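Bench log, entry 3. Co-assembly request; chain sequences pasted below exactly as received.
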Amino acid sequence: MRILRSTALALAGVLALAACSSGTTTPEASDSSSSTDGGQTAEAADITFWVAGGDTPQELRDYLVKTFEEQNPGSTLTIEQQDWGDLVTKLTTALPDKANTPDVVEIGNTQSPTFTTVGAFADITDMYDELGGDKLLQSFVDVGKADGKNYALPYYFGSRYMFYRKDIWDAAGLTVPKTLSEFSDDVKKLRTDTMSGFAMGGQDWRNGISWVFANGGELATESGGTWTSTLSDPNTIKGLQMWQDVYQNASNLPSTERDVAYWDFLNDAADGGAPEAATIMAPSWARWSIGDLTKNDAGDEVRDGMADASKFDIFALPGVDGGVAPVFAGGSNVAISAASQHQELARNLLKIIFSPEYQKMLGGAGLGPANSDYVSSLGDDKFAKTAIETAAGSKLTPAAPGWAAIEAAFVYEDLFQKIADGGDVTALAQQYDETITPMLNGQS
Amino acid sequence: MSTAAPDAATRATTPQATHGVRRPRMPYVLLVPAVAVLALGLGYPVYWQVITSLQKYGLAQQFGQPPEFVGLTNYTGILTDGYFWSVAGKSIVFCLVNAFVTVAIGVAVALLMRAVPTWVRIVLQVGLLVAWAMPLVAAVTVWKWLFDWRTGVVNWFLTQLGATGFDGHNWLAEPLSFFFVATVIIVWMSVPFVALSVFAALTQVPDEVLEAATIDGAGPSKIFRWIIVPMIRPVLSIVLLLQIIWDLRVFAQIRLLQDSGAPVKETNLLGNYIYELGIGRQDFASAAAVSILVLALTIAVSWPYVRSLLAEDKS
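Structure output for the full assembly:
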């Protein structure tokens, strides 16, 4: 038995050690090769551009690399793709590190304030007019500002609108709603036990805040550099109650759902049966995941992009008194790392990104161009028109320094779930105002 | 750990010293690399952790502002926050339930392996090894699919059995059923290690002893309680201790489950809370302080075991 005991102890020691080391891997900056000499600014070098997610198509990346290398002889551009999920973490570790920082980064519009307020990005106020000035999407410009200086500028915007089953709406004798309350009434009528009239997850506040904005409410306001959460504002409460009503009476989804692939619900079921939802709200690119099944050139089975207009169609979420409701705009900003050793080259890359050619290419790829002069490049079909229309009225979340912390702590997810579960909106609003206000100001 | 090693060395050399032999330096020299690696690999991060936990260290400090020394402010802030205590309480209960359930099932499987014919045992062992070797993310993903509210097999199966209310039932919506699913996953992943370790211990129990017990008229339950358990006790204690330590620092399974939609605030365990503070809110100082508290908690929880193990080892 003695041997058994010692072996067991030794084993325990080894495993405990292994346990210590396995769980705590620090997120490493991905290996960028930009750590060259770093002497003179315009000196030829390799610079790195971090794009977030797969939104920037390969064709556009190739264009950037080719054009940059033509305009800056001897220098090269490396484009590295980062996942949206851990972008903030990677930027937190990589940006302060002179040797490993990417030179230019794409960052989610609502993530910008977190970094602009701590000096992570280079001041590019002097380039603002050259890159488009007032023509640039102002709500995005504002979240990239700190102390009146420009640090991050818009890269592209996305928009969100409603996708619906025209065949089902028609069969129920319903037409496109003109006001937000008409919309609620229609989708409530369409709901059955097996089909949501309007599919919406309970934690999905990014879609849900459209109801707040539509009612003239705000999530937070700033005065004299201090942010205050304004959930208890009567307009905000009205919006939240309206959303609670439409969630409870039109959606069959659990109250814990967020980031749902709603488009799956709109397509016919796998066996060709009825869809699980008559209406969804999604970013404009969701179109390519909706429609009947067809084969593409490579022979893969894909959706036809809503080719059958009598079956699938879209409309913009209507406002309270008609018109278009302000929705939450998705999209990205771009910025130059303050620690970059190649500021001049990084600025040259920004000039290419904001050039008419590249702006038009963004539009051609279905991404809303930052410069309003080139928005027409999105096209003139109903998808482009609705995208432009909804983007024009869209809003962003507060540009508060603590915003990323709030997102990371899933505060609004918790709030919206509680509302979806039938909680008292006024009491919840008050309770969450107290939680959120200090977090907005970075005093978590 | 770095101090325990030289102690052991001292003890080992003492008898030689009393015999008048020159005290050898070699053991110490040989220990240097191990101690250096430990000091560098474990000592430095812990040192950094302690220092950070005594500062105000956030994103601004990460980007070059000098951190301000704030003493124990971070600790008092955390300890007076009711949320920390609720997370810690949940973590301890969750860890104890998981550890004991795992060990109970593991022992049962080990006894089963002893009782069944060889080919069945080999099938069992292979099955356990495969389950153990499965990468964590893959395993959790499969379990997530099984428990999916919309397309999950579990809901379908329960409905087929005639249970009502499981069509579209969301297992992750309520903290209790969320932790139930998490427990199923963690126990499933941990049982193989316990079962194989305990089975190895069981093979060391001499057949003659069991035979003698049977002849004396002891039934299977008595044999298990009074013969087998005392003989494999050292292994059982170690395995239980390890399970408690591992289950206290569970992180990924909870995080992955939360990602598919769950009330995050109510399902956070200590690991997830640290992650949220540090990585999410970039409040590195508070995250470091909570980590230190968890370290203290781990030592406190496991200390009685370690002491009894050491005492047993001496006797």
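Chain B has a mean pLDDT of 87. Chain B touches chain A through 46 residues (CB under 8 Å).
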